[in-house]
Structure formats: C-alpha cells, structure tokens
Amino acid sequence: MKVKILNEAGYAQAMLGLSLSYNQPIENMPAVACKLIPKGGSHIKFLESIAVWLDITAARYWWQQFDTYRVGVTKQSGSTMHTLMKRELDFDDFETMTAHVLTAINWHIRNSDPLLVKAILPEGFLQRRIVCTNYGTLRRVLIQRHHHKLHEWTTFRQAILAQVEHPEFFGRERMLREKLAALIHDMWSGWIDHVASKSTFNFDGSMTIPAGFVVRRERQMRGSYDDLSEEEKDSDRREADKVLALLKEHFAASGRMEEGK
Questions:
Q1: Residue 255 burial (CB < 10 Å; 0-12/13-18/19+)?
Q2: Residues 6+ away with beta carbon under 8 Å from 69
Q3: What is the pLDDT of residues 89-122, one digit of tens each?
Q4: Is the Cα dihedral 59, 62, 67, 69 positive or negative?
Q5: Is 55 helix (H, G, I), strand (E, B) or coil?
Q6: Beta-carbon count within 10 A of 244 CB
Q7: Residue 255 phi/psi, 5° resolution?
Q8: Of the candidates 173, 206, 232, which has an alpha carbon nearest to the alpha carbon of residue 224?
Q9: CB atoms within 10 A of CB 79
Q10: CA atoms of 64 and 21, how far apart (whole Å)
Q11: pTM over 0.70
Q12: 8: Cα within 13 Å, side-chain hemisphere
C-alpha cells in the first residue's frame, strides 16, 4: 500500500473563518483551534475547510472499506476495464497472489477475455486512486479505523499523520491514549487467561487457583521489581517492550523519534 499527500489548501481560509466566529485576530486562531479539537462535533467544523488531495495505491478489499466514506470524499481512478488487458499482470500488481491464480488470469488476458478477467480478479489487486477530501473527514476516518484488524489501516494512519501539514488537528494525544488503553487491556486479558490456564474450573462456575501459584504471585506483588528473579524481570521487560514499540510507532509517525533510538 502507498499513500502520498499531493497537496493541501484552505488552512488560511479556515483560520479566517474561525476568527470571524470568535471576533479575534487571525493570528490567535491556531491556539484557539487546538483547544477546540478535543470538543469535536460542530466545534471543529473549520476542519472541513482544509482540503487534502491523496494519491493512494491499495488493494481492492481495502477500497471497499474506504468507499463507505462518501461525505466529503471524491475519488478518481484508472478504469479496470480499459487498462486491465493492456499487459500481463505480475506479482507486483497484487497485495497477495499465488502463482497458479496469476497464470490463469494472464491466460485469459492473452485470450482477450476482459469480462472473465475482471470476474476472477482477486480482491488483492492493487488499484490507484486520487482522493480529494478534507481534514474533518480524515480525522473521522482515523478515529473510526484506529483499532481495525486490517493492517492497511495502520499503514494509512501512519502515512497521514506523518505527512499532514497540521497534525495537531488530529488529536494525536487522544489517539496515543486509546492505543495505550487497548494495549493495557490486552495485557490484562493475557494475565487473566494465564491465571485461568493454571486453575481448575468447578461445576458451580467458580475457579480454584492452586495454592503455590497464589503464594508466588503474592510474593511478587508485595516485593519490588529489584527483588524479582531475572526470569521474572524478563517477563516484565517483555511487557515493557510492547509499550516501547507502541510509543516508537506513535512518535515516528510525528517525526519526533529518530530511527534506532
């Protein structure tokens, strides 16, 4: 997947409109705008005045999800019907592809059967589109798709946050808070699952935790980190590594963390 911001326009005009609403000098508006971002809703309608043009190459299965955003979005793309038969396809034309499927597609291309080629074209076929949208819509997309399992949404989010001229309008701190909360939930869920795996489930729905397990955990709870064995410390370090990886991803997107630190 490739995401590139081609151009942005309307920031000055958005700040001018905001200054009319607050009857203040325009130079005060960037600070006012940042204070409005956490409020959301009608408070941040000025974001819709900042236009963004994107050049996106992505698999058709991702476009199917992106196409649910119709308000404030226009798209132009290459015609699959008109361009698909101009050459044989290769693995670079797909997000994922198997050799036997690619061979079958190219056989139909050589036999000039565009309708059949389009009918059997996998959802992993990469399509390039030029998208015109605005900050308001982009912000809504990033929030709604924040925890999506499809990895392309992570790629999209990172690309947008790394390239937009005014990332302060995307509530990056709020996104970091949500990511940390999700990670902590996963850690908690993993711990509960670990406890359950060591326990015995009773017929009345209760659970019996082995005495030895309780004694060990009580010792760990009441002691400090320095009192732990190296094996126990390694377990905590692995959890800390998850937090560090999340923070590195977050700050790398904003250009505030150098690679390797």
A1: exposed
A2: 133, 137, 140, 141
A3: 888 888 888 898 889 888 888 888 888 888 888 8
A4: negative
A5: strand
A6: 10
A7: 75, 20
A8: 232
A9: 7
A10: 38
A11: no
A12: 19
Contact by Cβ (8 Å): 57, 77: no
Rounded-to-integer distance, Cα 154 and Cα 127, Å: 18
Q: Kindly tell me the burial class for residue 119, based on how many C-beta atoms sit within 10 Å of its own C-beta (0-12, 13-18, 19 or more).
A: exposed
Q: Domains of the chain by range and CATH?
A: 2-170 (3.30.1360.170), 176-253 (no CATH)
Question: Per the structure block, which two tokens stand in for 100?
Answer: 């036997």
* CA quadruple 174, 175, 177, 181: dihedral, nearest 10: 140
Under 8 Å CB-to-CB from 258, ≥6 apart: which residues? none
Residues 6+ positions from 188 with CB-CB distance below 8 Å = none
User: Strand, coil or helix: what is 91?
Assistant: helix
The owner of tokens 């990511």 is 179
Tell which residue, 202, 194, 139, 198, has the closest CA to residue 171: 139
pLDDT confidence of residue 223: 86
Q: Furthest-apart CA pair in the chain: how many Å? A: 74
The Cα 162–Cα 229 span in angstroms is 41
Contact between 37 and 169 (Cβ < 8 Å): yes
Q: How many CA atoms lie less than 13 Å away from 130 in the CB half-sphere?
A: 6
The two structure tokens encoding residue 114: 């565009």
Tokens of 246: 């999340």
For the ranges 40-44, 48-52, 138-142, the lowest mean pLDDT is seen at: 40-44
Identify which of 150, 124, 136 has the alpha carbon closest to the alpha carbon of residue 57.
124
